[in-house]
Queue: 2 jobs
Job 1
Amino acid sequence: MPHRIPAIGRRTLAAAALALAAAPAAAAGDPLPAWRDGAAKRGILDFVARTTRRGAPGYLPPAERIAVFDNDGTLWVEQPLYTQFAFALDRLRDLAGQDPGLAAREPFKAALAGDLAAVLAGGEKGLAEIVAVTHAGMSQEAFAGIVTRWLGTARHPRFDRPYTRLIYQPMLEVMRLLRRAGFEVWIVTGGGQEFVRAFSAATYDVPIRQVVGSVGKTEFRLLPEGRSELFRLPAIVAVDDGPGKPVGIGHAIGRRPALAFGNSDGDIEMLQYTTTGPGRRLGLILHHDDAVREYAYDRGSHVGRLDRGLALAPDAGWTVVSMQRDWRRIFPPG
Amino acid sequence: MPHRIPAIGRRTLAAAALALAAAPAAAAGDPLPAWRDGAAKRGILDFVARTTRRGAPGYLPPAERIAVFDNDGTLWVEQPLYTQFAFALDRLRDLAGQDPGLAAREPFKAALAGDLAAVLAGGEKGLAEIVAVTHAGMSQEAFAGIVTRWLGTARHPRFDRPYTRLIYQPMLEVMRLLRRAGFEVWIVTGGGQEFVRAFSAATYDVPIRQVVGSVGKTEFRLLPEGRSELFRLPAIVAVDDGPGKPVGIGHAIGRRPALAFGNSDGDIEMLQYTTTGPGRRLGLILHHDDAVREYAYDRGSHVGRLDRGLALAPDAGWTVVSMQRDWRRIFPPG
């Protein structure tokens, strides 16, 4: 039986409805507005609901709510070059400007000419030399300053935006949803730990102590005038990629994660470590299949190759997220 | 001019005073009741007040409120033997019971006979072999279980208490005070990271991800039946002692601490790194000078030697805390 609403009541209701409509979608009920409805979105929402409902079979006490995310290709664009490699090349150009001898020597000459095939032809040695020259020989604080300044001016060649604006809006939403549900959100990156720490808090709301990455050797140095620093040496002590990811997780977090999100074969062991634990677990792989809005690559790519991961996903129960079909939008506005 | 209080008012006041007196000292105003009044206690209270008062010259934004504590001899008793070494000897006895051949071989034979001088005569090699046999060859989870079970039954030879009850009440109070003031409290120990993680949360209220320690090599292993583990190998990848402490802090925390508390020469570089930063800093050294209630040792001790630290403290501005004079009580009740 319809209820007659007096005119004044109707105006009040209309105002309330308008206020609700104006509220951000997240607050109004959908915490993942950049995701299209589908198995991936429903799987994430379902996982959060089941792990946080006290007494439910998949319930996780707060201390066990650990979620790990790869960075390159999972949280931000990694094509046509890993951003940290673009940084290294720009820094090499700067250094060569101050020291012309550098530009004449290999592998720097090839790198400065953009001939990455020649750099990589020498195996990891060439890359290691470039990392040593561009990433070491300074304090941790000085390095963080160099990265921050570079990120403030560098722009992506295709999108003509700062790299820190080429982050994925759907992933920001997933991280926010997890944090609100009491999860600790960690970044577990094959990239340099200090490189990612330089922007993780401002860009992703992930505090620097929750960034696990590849680690360069450092040395404690006492300086004149009562100062001291951690000095970066040209050597790597931990490669946080492939099987190094669960090892890095054990070292820094000390707990098996409940959720892992990656996008390349370098994330396989992190996904395996996460999803082979007891209880409810969620493993996700972002598949870059959207050449129009971002990039399309998998098995044949040098950067972010995804081959074994796609083969293992069905049996492992990992969700393959299609950028093209599952994401309504890619980047944050502006 | 005295104010005349009516009888009913006087009863109310008396009841209020009784209620205040019955409240725990911490709630009633003194957050450090196990500390005697003196320069050390006042220095800690003053540091917390000045770093947390917005607009004050020493104010620290919450993200920079990092406090680091050594463990052995700073948070719990380290005499007559580091607790982890007592654990290793007990475990060696267990293993020798299952494998008599082990008991016949050096350095295990000397260790089982309690002849530590003979073990140490061979340099670090003997110790490394004992650590390899007692601390490796199992998963991280299995190791944590072994440590937890041992801590549940082992008792200190002099005090006849579980080791986790031989923690220092005054230090529990300092850690609680700092946490309430928005500091993140970390343990930075020369001991094994996983050993200390096995009890840090229950014993000190320090979550396992805030334990930085010496780290053994681990390997990710896929197991049958869809399981996986991090397997402990007999090799050390990071020694978190001396200059290794600031390196470990950089790796795990990524920020220079504002407060450091140690007790031995192995803490010097951590104290230097902390107190040579800009802004307000506090470095403290616990001096074990109380043979009656605990132990008295410094320059001549093999365990927890404190020699250079005492020499450097005056110029560095580090507070030397006297266990005998500054601490009203040593251990928690019970």
Job 2
Amino acid sequence: MSRTRVHNLAISLDGFAAGEPQSLEAPFGHAGERLHEWMFKTRFWGEGGAEGVDDAFAVRHEVGIGAEIMGANKFGPPGWQDDPDWKGWWGPNPPFHSPTFVLTHRPRAAIEMEGGTTFHFLDAAPAEALAVAKEAADGKDVRLGGGAMIVREFVAAGLVDHMHLVQVPIVLGRGSRVWDGLEALEDTYDIEAVSTPSGVTHLTFMRKGTEG
Amino acid sequence: MSRTRVHNLAISLDGFAAGEPQSLEAPFGHAGERLHEWMFKTRFWGEGGAEGVDDAFAVRHEVGIGAEIMGANKFGPPGWQDDPDWKGWWGPNPPFHSPTFVLTHRPRAAIEMEGGTTFHFLDAAPAEALAVAKEAADGKDVRLGGGAMIVREFVAAGLVDHMHLVQVPIVLGRGSRVWDGLEALEDTYDIEAVSTPSGVTHLTFMRKGTEG
């Protein structure tokens, strides 16, 4: 059974997955890289990194994934659709290594990158995009890569089986908030929380009655 | 040095300390009592309760406190100001046992209760109210009792030395949110998080450079 999963989505205490304004120079706005420092210190991120609790969560990003869906705001800074040469933030070998579907109202031709990543561009509603991605995932799971807007849309549509958020002890005050429009997730998901020595708290949402 | 402290303020994952609508029958609106179940299970709440991590946090509510300040929304349901006989939710012996200052734009005469609690009614800005409460606390600390609105007002005004929030794994979606209007608390406070077996996460904010 192919599932839809969110991993390593870092949020502030007040629920923002990115600050503002987002730009080429500041992809996460006034948040800078503060939401992701916990991850940079893990072995998941690089040789010599720590293999503690944060790493145990982080590595699941890769396990059993056959395709990714991401929002337009993750693929590039505002206006990337006007740049025909924009190929994402990640250089020639992006860390997705699978078919990667970018949701945008201005789709373009697919881009084949090194390392198994091919960017496909889709103008589609969540359920429709997920059907396409599941076909491409060939029985494996689909990762929903973010940002906050697309995650909350898919959760609201009942399409997410597993969600892993990482709450970082900062208060951003403004930006893109993962909670907006959501309510009573505890009815649909078993929720666990664990704080780690780095200061973050991992939250897992596992769909009830499934292996979510 | 008399400090200003917040204890046991329970919030949902999305930051709401109460749901809506608040009423005599439902003081916390659609949240019901779900934000406080963790506390009902502690020895702090009653004989036979558990003495684990949740209790260790909960009991600090009492320690070293000489006065409380609360918002009008904590003292009674909407419209309590129209009922001359309203004396709070807590019966003849309220759990404050100290001078307790209710901030309201419609003050009334003080009410002396059993057990050391006297309700005083103040129409005052945060700093002014705090000066009055500190005088009454006679060298001890002042507890800021909530709800969310008054806590965020006092935090924004730089008046809070220690804040303890308890994040409960539910998503309320609407109500009174503690984070609104706040930003960059990490600049002012050292922040710690610890999850406990009950499923909640205790967040402590300790003012930097003090004993907060």
